[in-house]
Design brief:
Elements: E1 6-11, H1 19-29, E2 33-38, H2 42-45, H3 48-55, H4 76-80, E3 83-89, H5 91-98, H6 105-112, E4 117-121, H7 125-129, H8 131-142, E5 146-147, E6 151-154, E7 160-164, H9 168-179, E8 189-194, E9 199-200, E10 206-207, H10 214-225, E11 229-234, E12 246-249, H11 253-263, E13 269-272, E14 279-281, E15 300-302, H12 306-309, E16 315-322, H13 326-336, E17 341-346, E18 358-359, E19 361-365, E20 370-372, E21 376-377, H14 378-393, E22 400-404, H15 407-412, E23 415-417, E24 431-436, E25 439-447, E26 453-455, H16 459-465, E27 474-481, E28 485-492
Parallel strand pairs: 1-2, 1-3, 3-4, 4-5, 8-11, 8-13, 11-12, 13-16, 16-17, 24-28
Antiparallel strand pairs: 6-7, 9-10, 14-15, 17-19, 18-21, 19-20, 22-27, 23-26, 24-25, 25-26, 27-28
Flavin mononucleotide (FMN) binds next to α5.
């Protein structure tokens, strides 16, 4: 989930420094390249060797050990970082960063980096509540630093209070959220429901179902990681609350309906991965139902159908857990409930459905299309469902667009394609043909920066054939054959 990303993990001199080893491990396991920078005080608490063994990378502890194998150019880590995480962050380091001090490798890196910085403070409650610490934190927040925690709990001093380092899972969630800010769901609001509802029959008993909530939580986390503002409406589950989103807890289908109505007021999409009850008790007994000799009959009435009854102009994605006639049942529900997408899930298949970490689903759309996915992790399923949500949410680009030329493009013989038109072109490195007045040019879709394209191959010659083209001129691309052939013509030299 973090593959291809480079993280600086700053560890400072607090009791919680040992917990940073777990964070280093989680970041590494998620695929990130982790460069640990320790303050001198931090090395009093944990040995650099610990982080070196976990990250398989040198650990930087000094700016001036130029002969050491760990030596790096003083701003190299700042420039390479996609994200900087300081955990635990001492009051001292927070104060030094707020003051712009750069007298060790960590503070120098923070001052020099353009990457987002996540700060997880941990300190004694009085240090945290001290107005000077609070002023420093406010100043850094104003400048865009993202704080996670501290939490409330037992501190190293034995006292209870604010000052504990938050759980590593919460720091990881915040890292994912911050890195997702530029994702394809940035600026979108997604509401996700998860888990099986509980319908009371008396004060101690309920009718429930086997939904574990894992699929919904995976969708909520994947939406967050792609930049969406997420509201997760969750029935009781045994899963830890995901970080970086609003979480609303509900129990019954009636509560679910009210929470969905409220949360979708400003939503772009609703993904109903929860398993709401279809039937609820006509009346809930006021006292515990006593065991008797006769059989017990509970009168059930139809529950509200949350996804059909909620109104608004957002996308609706349903999940259909079936034990028979999977696709027919799912298609009938998609039509009857006016959904945009339906994810059909055969819960009788091995390794698929309730409680498992993997799922085998088919995605149906309202145009009659079916996308049959192989068995994959619930997180992978979540991303495939969200790919479809993104495609429906983004306006379809026109099949023609213009590019205003710069001196660099003409000089280097390249034309960058803006992200908006990315989907008109094939995968990176795939061959394509440009039909021009100087004949056909065989080119490729090349990578310039993440999610953008740059056409380079063959263009140098074409620019050479058109010396009249100057910076400020405009060229037009028109799709002749999607993903293969494009017309390239001069609009204005
Ligand atoms: C045993 C011990 C535990 C400490 N725990 C913390 C702590 O949890 N949080 C904190 O802000 N400072 C704590 N300190 C104080 C810092 O270590 C001290 O302010 C130090 O200068 C921080 O340096 P650094 O920010 O460069 O890592 C502790 C000091 C000692 C001796």
């Amino acid at each position: 989930m973090l593959s291809g990303k480079t993280a600086v993990l700053g560890v400072t001199g607090g009791i919680a420094a040992y917990k940073a080893a777990d964070l280093a491990s989680k970041l590494t396991q998620a695929g990130a390249t982790v460069n640990v920078i320790m303050t001198e005080s931090a090395t009093e608490f944990v040995a650099p060797l610990t982080f070196r063994a976990i990250t398989h990378r040198p650990v930087v502890t000094s700016m001036f050990e130029l002969t050491s194998e760990f030596s790096v150019e003083h701003v190299a880590l700042a420039e390479a970082a996609d994200i900087v995480v300081i955990a635990p962050a001492t009051a001292n380091t927070i104060a030094r960063i707020a003051a712009g001090i750069a007298d060790d490798m960590l503070t120098t890196t923070v001052l020099a980096t353009e990457a987002p910085v996540v700060v997880a403070p941990a300190m004694n409650v009085n240090m945290w509540q001290n107005p000077v610490t609070q002023e420093n934190v406010a100043r850094l927040k104003e400048r865009g630093f993202v704080f996670v925690g501290p939490g409330y709990g037992r501190l190293a001093s034995g006292r209870m209070g604010m000052g504990r380092l938050v759980e590593v899972t919460e720091i990881m969630g915040t890292v994912q959220q911050v890195l997702g800010r530029k994702g394809d769901l940035a600026g979108k609001r997604i509401v996700v429901t998860a888990g099986g509802t509980r319908e009371a029959i008396d004060p101690v008993r309920y009718i429930g179902n086997r939904s574990s909530g894992k699929m919904g939580y995976a969708i909520a986390e994947a939406s967050r990681d792609r930049g969406a503002a997420v509201t997760l409406i969750t029935a009781p589950t045994s899963l830890p609350a995901p970080a970086g989103m609003e979480t609303v807890s509900i129990e019954s289908v009636v509560e679910l309906k009210a929470a969905v109505a409220e949360a979708t007021k400003q939503a772009d999409a609703l993904v109903m991965a929860a398993a709401p009850a279809d039937y609820v008790a006509r009346s809930v007994a006021a006292q515990k139902i006593k065991k008797g000799s006769a059989a017990l009959t509970i009168d059930l009435v139809k529950a509200p159908d949350v996804i059909s009854e909620v109104t608004g102009s957002f996308l609706k994605v349903g999940f259909s857990a079936e034990t028979e006639n999977l696709l027919d049942n799912a298609r009938e529900k998609l039509t009857r409930k006016s959904l945009d997408l339906m994810v059909a899930n055969d819960v009788t298949a091995a390794d698929s459905g309730f409680g498992t970490d993997t799922n085998k689903v088919t995605i149906l759309d309202r145009d009659g299309g079916t996308e049959d996915l192989p068995l994959m992790t619930k997180r992978e399923v979540a991303d495939r469902v969200l790919d479809r949500v993104v495609a429906l949410l983004l306006p379809t680009p026109p099949n023609t667009f213009e590019v205003r030329l710069t001196g660099r493009m003409i000089g280097a013989g390249c034309i960058p394609i803006r992200k908006r038109y990315r989907q008109l072109f094939p995968e990176f490195k795939s061959p394509l043909t440009l039909v021009t007045d100087a004949g056909k040019i065989k080119s490729t879709a090349g990578r310039s920066f993440p999610d953008a394209l740059e056409l380079r191959k063959g263009l140098y010659k074409w620019f050479k054939a058109h010396p009249e083209l100057k910076a400020g001129g405009t060229v037009r691309f028109t799709v002749i054959e999607p993903m293969r052939q494009y017309r390239l013509e001069i609009l204005e030299a």
